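Task card 7
Instruction: Convert sequence to structure tokens.
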Amino acid sequence: MESRTSFRPRAWPLLLVACTTARGVVPPSAAGLGGSQGDAVEVAGVRVEDLGALLPVAQRCHASNAERCNGVDDNCDGALDEGCAPGTSAMMVTASWATAADLDLRVVEPGGEELSFRHRRTASGAELLRDANGACARTLPAVESARWTSRSLPRGRYRVRLTAGDLCGASATPVTLTVAARGRVVGAWGVTITRSQEEHGLSLVLQ
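Output:
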């Protein structure tokens, strides 16, 4: 049985999201990001590691922007896509990109249960909110989101994977993964996918 840890009474969201966010442009170093390939980052009790080919990216946002359901902290308040789904998220994982490619987001929880488009709910309270561009049927924006609504989450390692099921005619698909925890953006990392079945990911360790 996995050990479990409870957040403080105020449920700050833990988010892992594909997006770009910041006031104007914040360099990766100023946003708390690692400065080179493979760097690990730890903020607010959450450690992001095993980055592989993912590289830090600058973040863009503006306080006057309205928040949209696009996997971006549009208004720079440290929360992502608030109000886009009922209830309060204790943790969220989101991927977004701008082409017709059919990319698939998967998260393997510490206990081994996998959340994916084939298994859209887990025992810990996670659900996949959206499966974008499935079978190359274009959806806008192209965003895939997984979230956990329980305030008590299993401690340990969450393995996040993003796989290109089909590029659907796109020659290249840039995608960004962003991690935020308890109202704070931990970091943003990007990679460009150029072939079907290409896979990238990272590990998220909940202390």
